[in-house]
Write a structure and sequence with these properties.
One of its GO terms (molecular function) is monooxygenase activity. The chain is α+β, with helices and mostly antiparallel strands. The chain has a single domain, classed as Cytochrome p450. Helix content is 46%, strand content 8%. The strands form 3 sheets. It has a 5-stranded mixed β-sheet with strand order 1-2-8-5-3. Strand 6 and strand 7 form a beta hairpin. Helix 6 runs parallel beside helix 17, helix 8 crosses helix 9 and helix 10 crosses helix 12. Bound molecules: protoporphyrin IX containing FE. Protoporphyrin IX containing FE binds next to helix 12, helix 13 and helix 17. The site of protoporphyrin IX containing FE has 26 residues, from helix 12, helix 13 and helix 17.
Length: 437
C-alpha cells in the first residue's frame, strides 16, 4: 500500500465499481494528481479534504470554461450532455461573480427553504405512489421504479410543469440518464426538447402573470404544485426578475434547466447509493429502522448526511479552471489548467473523519463536502434532504424486510466522471409486509 508503483488504475471498470482504494492511494501518495481523463484532457485531481475545501472556495479557480488553456470557450464541462449545442451556458455552475452572485440571489428569492418545506406532503405522496406500484410483487428495481421518477416529478411539480406534461420530462430525463456523457443523437435531442418546452412555459407563465397579477403573490406563496398560475417556482423566477433586477428569458430557461438537471441524477443516486449502503450494512440499517419505528427523526437526518459522505452521488465537483498560476496543497498548478475536486475522496479523508470507511449513521462531526462548498454550494440541498429523508423512511417503514436481490459484486455502476450511481438496484421483500402508509 505504501509502494508508489502500486498505484491503482483510474477510470477502469474496477474503479467505477469501487473507486475508494484508488482515492486512498492518491490522498496518501499524490494528493494533487495530474491525470489524463478518458476524454484525453489533462486535469488535476484534488483528493485531500483540506485542499478540496480550500480549492472549492478559491476565487482564482473559475467555473467559466473560457479559462481552460486547451480549448478556450468551446467546451461545455458541467457534464450536461448537448450543452455545447444548446443555449444553456449561462447557468450557475458555469459562471463566476459578479454574474453568479446576481443570478444566485435571484433564484434564492424564489427557491426558498420555506417553499421546499411546504412541499413535504407532495414528496410523501409520490414515494407512497411508487411503492404502491410494486408492493404486491415482492420485488422491484429501486433505481427505475423509485429513485428515478421521484426527483423528476418532484422538480416538475415545484417548477410548475403541468401534470399532463410531466411524463415527457420523465422520458427526456430517462434518455439523458441512460445515454448521458455526450452530446449525441437522442440525448442532444432530449436536451433541446426540454429547453424548447421550458422557454415556451416561461412565455406562457409570464403572460398568465401579467394577465392575472395574483394579488399578494411574492414568489414564495405556495409549494408549487403545478396547479394555479403564480404559485410555482418558474413564476417565482419571473417575478424575482421583474422586481428591479434583471433575469432574461434565456437566463430563466437556463435556470429552470439547471434546477432540473442538477437536481435529477444527483437525487436518483443519493437514494440509490444510500439504499445500497443500507442494504449491504445490516447493522446501521436495523438501527435506523428501530429509530423510525420509535417515531424519531434525528437519526434519519444524520443518516442522510452520513450516506452522502460515505458514498455520495457527486464523485467530482464540476470543472474549475486556474485563472492564474497557483499552488494547491504545495503542488504548482499552471494558469489554464483544469482542476477537479474529488468530493468522494475528500469525504473519506482520515485526516478529517474518524474511521472514514465506516458507516456511522449517528456521526455528529460530519462537515462533508457532498453538496460542495463556497459560493457554488448546492442550491437544492434542502430539497435533496427532504427527498432522501422521505424516500428512506418510506422504503424502510413500508418494506421492513427489504433485501438486496443480487450478489453485491454483480451490481453495475455507471462509469461517468462526475456522478457515481448504480444502473439497477434489484430488491426483494415479503409482499404481505408492504403495509400501506
Ligand atoms: C450545486 C450536489 C441535489 C441544484 C451542487 C454542487 C454539488 C451538488 C456538489 C456544487 C458543484 C460544484 O461546486 O462544482 C448535490 C447533491 C444532491 C443535489 C449531492 C443530492 C441529491 C440538488 C437538487 C437541486 C440542486 C435537488 C435543485 C433542484 C443545484 C444547483 C447548483 C448545485 C442549482 C449550482 C449552484 C451554484 O453554482 O451556485 N450540487 N446536489 N442540487 N446544485 Fe446540487
Amino acid at each position: 500500500m505504501t509502494d508508489r508503483a502500486a498505484m491503482p488504475e483510474l477510470f477502469t471498470w474496477e474503479f467505477a465499481t469501487d473507486p475508494y482504494p484508488a482515492y486512498a492511494w492518491l490522498r496518501e501518495h499524490s494528493p494533487v494528481h495530474r491525470t489524463t481523463l478518458p476524454s484525453g484532457v489533462e486535469a488535476w485531481l484534488v483528493t485531500r479534504y483540506g485542499d478540496a475545501r480550500e480549492a472549492l472556495a478559491d476565487p482564482r479557480l473559475s467555473k467559466n470554461p473560457v479559462h481552460h488553456a486547451e480549448s478556450p470557450g468551446a467546451r461545455g464541462k458541467t457534464g450536461i450532455p448537448g450543452e455545447r449545442s444548446a443555449d444553456l451556458m449561462t447557468h450557475l455552475l458555469n459562471i463566476d461573480p459578479p454574474d453568479h452572485t446576481r443570478l444566485r440571489r435571484l433564484v434564492s428569492k424564489a427557491f426558498t427553504p420555506r417553499r421546499v418545506a411546504l412541499f413535504e406532503p407532495r414528496v410523501r405522496q409520490l414515494t407512497d405512489r411508487f411503492v404502491d406500484g410494486f408492493a404486491a410483487r415482492g420485488e422491484a428495481d429501486l433505481i427505475h421504479e423509485f429513485a428515478f421518477p421521484l426527483p423528476i416529478y418532484a422538480i416538475c411539480d415545484l417548477l410548475g410543469v403541468p401534470a399532463e406534461d410531466q411524463d415527457d420530462f420523465r422520458d427526456w430525463a430517462g434518455m439523458m440518464i441512460r445515454h448521458g456523457g455526450g452530446p449525441r443523437g437522442g440525448v442532444a435531442r432530449s436536451v433541446k426538447r426540454m429547453r424548447a418546452y421550458l422557454v415556451e412555459l416561461i412565455h406562457r407563465k409570464r403572460a398568465e402573470l401579467t394577465a392575472g397579477d395574483p394579488a399578494g403573490a411574492d414568489g414564495a406563496a405556495g409549494a408549487g404544485t403545478g396547479s394555479g398560475a403564480g404559485d410555482d417556482l418558474i413564476s417565482g423566477l419571473i417575478r424575482a426578475s421583474d422586481h428591479g433586477e434583471h433575469l432574461t428569458e434565456n437566463e430563466a430557461a437556463a435556470m429552470a434547466f439547471i434546477l432540473l438537471f442538477a437536481g435529477f441524477e444527483t437525487t436518483v443516486n443519493l437514494i440509490g447509493n444510500g439504499m445500497h449502503t443500507l442494504l449491504t450494512h445490516p447493522g446501521p440499517r436495523v438501527e435506523l429502522q428501530a429509530s423510525l419505528a420509535r417515531g424519531e427523526s434525528a437519526l434519519l437526518e444524520s443518516a442522510v448526511e452520513e450516506l452522502l459522505r460515505h458514498d455520495g452521488p457527486v464523485e467530482l465537483a464540476t470543472w474549475r479552471y486556474a485563472t492564474a498560476a497557483l499552488t494547491i496543497g504545495g503542488q504548482p498548478v499552471a494558469a489554464g489548467d483544469p482542476v477537479l475536486v474529488v468530493l468522494a475522496a475528500a469525504d473519506r479523508d482520515p485526516a478529517r473523519f474518524t474511521e472514514p470507511d465506516t458507516v456511522n449513521l449517528a456521526r455528529a462531526d460530519n462537515p462533508h463536502l457532498g453538496y460542495g462548498h463556497g459560493i457554488h454550494y448546492c442550491l437544492g440541498a434542502p430539497l435533496a434532504r427532504l427527498e432522501a429523508r422521505t424516500a428512506l423512511s418510506t422504503l424502510l417503514t413500508r418494506l421492513p424486510d427489504l433485501r438486496l436481490a443480487a450478489d453485491p459484486a454483480d451490481l453495475r455502476w455507471r462509469g461517468g466522471l462526475i456522478m457515481r450511481g448504480l444502473r439497477t438496484l434489484p430488491v426483494a421483500f415479503t409482499p404481505g409486509a408492504a403495509q400501506a402508509n
